[in-house]
Amino acid sequence: MSVTNPADNLATLIRCPSVTPSEGGALAALEAMLAPLGFNVERVTAREAGTPDIENLYARLGTDGPHLMFAGHTDVVPVGDEAAWTHPPFAAEIAGGEMFGRGAVDMKGGIACFVAALARHINKHGAPKGSVSFLITGDEEGPAINGTVKLLEWAAERGERWDACLVGEPTNPDQLGDMIKIGRRGSISGFVTVHGVQGHVAYPHLADNPLRAVTTMAAALMHPPLDTGTENFPPTNLEVTTIDTGNRATNVIPSRARFDFNVRFNDLWTAESLQAELLRRLDAAAADQTLRPDRAPIRYEITWSERPSHVFLTRNDALISSLSGAVEAVTGKVPVLSTTGGTSDARFIKDYCPVVEFGLVGQTMHMVDERVALADLETLTTIYETFIDRWFAHAAS
User: Fold this and answer.
1) What is the DSSP letter of 172?
2) Side-by-side strand order, sheet with 98-100
3) DSSP letters along 221-243, please?
4) To 5 degrees, how large is the angle CA 93–CA 95–CA 101?
């Protein structure tokens, strides 16, 4: 095995069954790749009551600036129905020019390619004129409590400072070179309990059906639209994800109902200003008598997700142009600079340094038969190697 070969690196990582929260040998395998390259490798176990302990890894090569961080995760989602896989999910088998296995795309493949790219750079030029670090968690696919957040805090308390970060999440919709993520929308969830009065459906005047209020309240959250989008972000979008009463009887009006929602919001909002607007809409809808004539305002309570994800946009020309230029030089494509998609650990890293994301094509992530083309592994490695060259050259100028 040579660490300059991304396929070898990936096969080693896939064969580690690191389903969240298990380390599964993946961090040990990564340490074995990095230590011979000269990295100082530290394993950090984070703990918090009520959550599983999580093993993480921090490795640094060099002691001076500029300092480039590569961030990612070795934990993977469960395989689902293993019998439905064409190839065993932890065997890293190759067929038709593709490597099959859980984590091939999300995101052991990105880690494997960055290790190979850095090893090639070292073989050709020696260590970069500065520092490179790996910040790798085992909790990205889990609750994200004992992973990147705590590893960043641990490193910062020890005096670690970074000038830029590349996250190797799969960002390309169809082909390598399609898209770089330069920011992410915010995300917040709410859980609304609406109180009514239970009764017989044949005697509605003796009851108060909370579902009538839920209908009005949910509609008020979704319409009118919260905004029409900004230069860098699509419109804020709210989706009601569940409505439930716990009632199985068709002749009983329930005493209460609950509905949950999630909002992906752009940079017109903060989590606090968005919450205030949603509460204003809920209060107005609670007093709406359209479906509840001659009734007092409905009683409701709302709780919010404990840790909303905040919107962010990276504006760092050295980082973005180095990566975009590398992508174009290798693939001939000018990547779209995007803020679409869900959340990632970049939402934590942005508090420490500028961060962008670029990795493999994400079409099979989390699916049965997750797989990656061997040609894509080689192309991504070349992009990363070119990016390393360009970023350090730009930082030194």
Assistant:
1) B
2) 94-95, 98-100, 371-373
3) HHSS-S----SSSPPPEEEEEEE
4) 40
**Residues 248, 325: Cα–Cα separation, whole Å:** 59
Question: What would the mean pLDDT of 350-379 be, rounded to a whole number?
Answer: 98
DSSP state, residue 296: P
Across 276-296, average pLDDT = 96
Amino acid letter, 231:
E
User: Of 40, 368, 313, 340, whose CA–CA distance to 178 is shortest?
Assistant: 340
H-run or E-run covering 312: strand 312-313
What pLDDT shows up at residue 342? 86
Q: Omega before 297 cis (within 30°)?
A: no
pLDDT value at residue 207: 97
% the chain with pLDDT above 70: 100
Q: Which tokens go with 233?
A: 């972000």
Query: Which token pair is 63?
Result: 């002691």
CA distance 323 to 338: 13
Q: Are 136 and 107 in contact (CB under 8 A)?
A: no
Could you tell me if 9 and 112 are in contact, meaning their C-beta atoms sit under 8 angstroms apart? yes
DSSP 19: B
How many residues are recorded in the chain?
A: 397
Q: What is the mean pLDDT of the chain?
A: 97
Question: Would you name the residues annotated as active-site residues?
Answer: 75, 140
Q: How far is CA 369 from the centre of its chain?
A: 21
